């Protein structure tokens, strides 16, 4: 009787290695529908299977390009010859020319068909990481799909003409988002129409109200509402916050007049027109490139709970108008979908960030300048529920100089795998990214948001500082989780006084933390702005650059965390001490014996134990 059991086990283990394609994604690559790509992801076997369905009887090209162009792209070209034989090759491009065939062929063609009415379908597969320098790695990094096909039904692969090629920015390993189901959901919108101010950067805030709810509902989806090309071109991002009136004040009395007035005012000024201080709970955010957000089927964002029949919101729009256009009027908004059919879990949102302030100072012409903001364990310890929280989506936010974004998590003496890591962050493509595996955050975990900037594209003689404009920087993550907890925002910064001291600044006058400061002492610098001093009076040696980066990463930060009702200030925070092992993704391409043993020994032991158990 032992023999069949062993066989059964072996068969089972083979099956579980080649588990299954658990996620299925689709993109219409050519706007006219002539090139449709489906792809399925197997996270266990780490394989992606593509299905390119293209309106041609000639060749079909598909590629993955970190830069978006041909250069550096990993490309396959395939099709079916007149005589019915299929062809397919793994190639790479070194320029805007016919891609070169790779020495190793790592993409596998599984099927090729061509219909008489002229549709070619290619099914092909590849590993996330083929360990071939002539291929690119598929990871959680933002990348681009590039595509092309023969406009003349030709199998003679020539360098493709325009009109039959294109690029799509994509995060290829992200799971699919459930479909929008407007037929079954109710909706309301939060929107604002106005003439965009003719300033480079404007943060405009208006107050809005939800419909009246007589019982609790769940919000299940958010869809951006940008109805014109102007709205798409000039709405850099927006945040919608929920509002809570001061104690003992009726919400309608407090917020109603602002809703009815409708005009709003600038957000980050000393005395804003609207009560921004009472609208601090992040509700939804969107940024350039962002798509519809549909929550997983077991999760809803609660609204209309007892005592709160109407929700009030502050809608903060970041208008980006670098050429200072005048008289441009458009509508910006969001559609909120909700249902009375309550789901299993209530969702919440939380921010982990570096403060947006002068403490974030990037030396001129920097490549790879890193900064980090911390959410100290004291915050998670005090404000998370005992069973912890489960994160299901993350949005990472930086401005034009942001290049790499990493969300780190530390527990005890270990660093856990990165929940989000994008080494090719794309400012033009900011998404609330669903996680393929939910992330657990427990009480006492320390969270760190790391951002890396490149400012060589900017005026090479000027520093970049933290601030609101897209040419200033931010370092933020906003994540969606359940069950809803008290903690809503957690940040830190290297004390601004310390960075001032490095440049001989004794005191400065700032009306808000977001603005450049005016030096008040010493007298030799008085009247100059902080950036003016840094741009004209500082000799940016490589030692100074390194010192700024190192000190802001390693010297104690001042931190803060907020709940709806409390603010907790924490001094002397930084990377947790006593971490014995930092997380490092496994190098799948290291063929050294030591590296392979690390992997195979546990599998081997596991097999032996399973056999013993069966026997
Ligand atoms: C490939 O996609 C096409 C439509 O886009 C579909 O009709 C076809 O069934 C798919 N093939 C496979 C093997 O999934
Ligand atoms: C089919 O056509 C291609 C291209 O002309 C040629 O290379 C290939 O040998 C042909 N195959 C057969 C089976 O005739
Ligand atoms: C290829 O796909 C076609 C159409 O879906 C199917 O009829 C055929 O059996 C497939 N061939 C192989 C080798 O899988
Ligand atoms: C903007 O509109 C106003 C009023 O319609 C008009 O007087 C003004 O000339 C316009 N400005 C520009 C730059 O078009
Ligand atoms: C991508 O992120 C997910 C979390 O959503 C993580 O589980 C996975 O290991 C990451 N994949 C790679 C290839 O880094
Ligand atoms: C900025 O750095 C690049 C190399 O990274 C260098 O070529 C360029 O000269 C630098 N610019 C200035 C103004 O120093
Ligand atoms: C600081 O700025 C405020 C307004 O921006 C101004 O009223 C005040 O005089 C300034 N203080 C100094 C010392 O310059
Ligand atoms: C391969 O892995 C081994 C053991 O994990 C490590 O010592 C070695 O440095 C790695 N080699 C490379 C090229 O990464």
TrEMBL record:
| Domain DOMON intervals | 33-150
Q: Which GO terms describe its cellular component?
A: extracellular space; secretory granule membrane
Indicate the segments annotated as coiled coil, or none if absent.
Answer: none
- Give GO terms for biological process: dopamine catabolic process; norepinephrine biosynthetic process; octopamine biosynthetic process
Gene Ontology molecular functions: copper ion binding; dopamine beta-monooxygenase activity
Query: Matching SMART domains, A to Z?
Result: DoH
* Family annotation (InterPro entries): Cu2_ascorb_mOase-like_C, Cu2_ascorb_mOase_N, Cu2_ascorb_mOase_N_sf, Cu2_monoox_C, DBH-like, DOH_DOMON, DOMON_domain, PHM/PNGase_F_dom_sf
Record flagged with keyword Disulfide bond: yes
UniProt keyword annotations, A-Z: Disulfide bond, Glycoprotein, Monooxygenase, Oxidoreductase, Signal
Q: Which organism is it from?
A: Folsomia candida
Q: Does the keyword Signal apply?
A: yes
Q: Which family does it belong to?
A: Belongs to the copper type II ascorbate-dependent monooxygenase family.
PROSITE patterns recorded: DOMON
Which residues, if any, are the signal sequence?
1-19
The name of this protein is DBH-like monooxygenase protein 1
